[in-house]
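Hey team,

Filing this mostly as a record. A colleague (T.K.) asked me to run one chain through the structure pipeline before their review meeting, and I want the input and output archived in the tracker in case anyone asks later how it was produced. No errors, nothing strange. Just documentation.

Input sequence:
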Amino acid sequence: MDLSKLLEKLYQKLLSKKTKEKSEQVILWIALVSFIIHLLMIGLIHFNVIIFNEPSNLLKNPIAAIYTPFSFILVYEVYLLIYYLPKSTSTYISKQYEIIALVIIRRLFKDLSDLSLTPNWFNVKNDLQFTYDLVASVLLFYLIFLFHVQRTKVYRANENNKNHISSVSKFINAKKGIAISLVPVLLIIAIYSFLNWSIGIFQPLESNAISFKNINNIFFEQFFNILIIADVILLLFSFFHTDEFHKVIRNSGFIISTILIRISFSVSGIINNVLIVFAILFGLSMLFIHNKFEKKLAEEAQESNEIEE
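Output structure:
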């Protein structure tokens, strides 16, 4: 079996539409069961059936139970990111943005369980974080909408020559290879993160357990490190496909956007939200300008064809 056939076989096993649909069903059931188990544990602790010296906040408030199924759904969203990687660069990037927006939405459920609801709203750290996350989630939702609008605007000149088709095919195969290699990485990091997440819930914060900040970041902090490497490899492979200035700048801008998202995990408070919003705004700006280039080039190609005719 040659390399291309092996690649296609692995791709169909790990990233086909059928595998995606099966994975979705499995994750949804896991999310549902985990939500029920989390709620039961909160109830058992509340009625002193299970006793912890100092339980995590995730085991005190029923609202916090939503955090658990959301964590599994987010893992599936990362799988979808990998699934779309070989199909479209802009779709792949938009999935990154959707994931970080969902991370903030998930954090809102944790914020809700920590709200103090006092007159000193802007002097309480948890209440302030909830405000930042609330505003950021609305901004991100709108920016992602704008990104989707720009993503669907396609302006292409005549690219049906054999050399172009061959280079596109090779680039897609390279993206498939990267996507296939990311699947086991996703599984390993997910299992490792689940174990750390469990420790963060069942051990009190004062006993060297993982802090809430780290609970929000585990898996995604590590996975975005991997994504940066994957994005750089994709950029290098893209040079075999095209050396057009506007495409190189767009792809480079997407990498910077991913790096900014990764950096956001290392800070907290309003700086975290500002970095995430700016990262998506930067990526949106790059795509918008890229589309302006594409439109102009397509118009020039059309005018040239009309003159030749």
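Quick notes for T.K.: Confidence is low (pLDDT under 50) at residues 204-213. The two ends are 48 Å apart (CA to CA).
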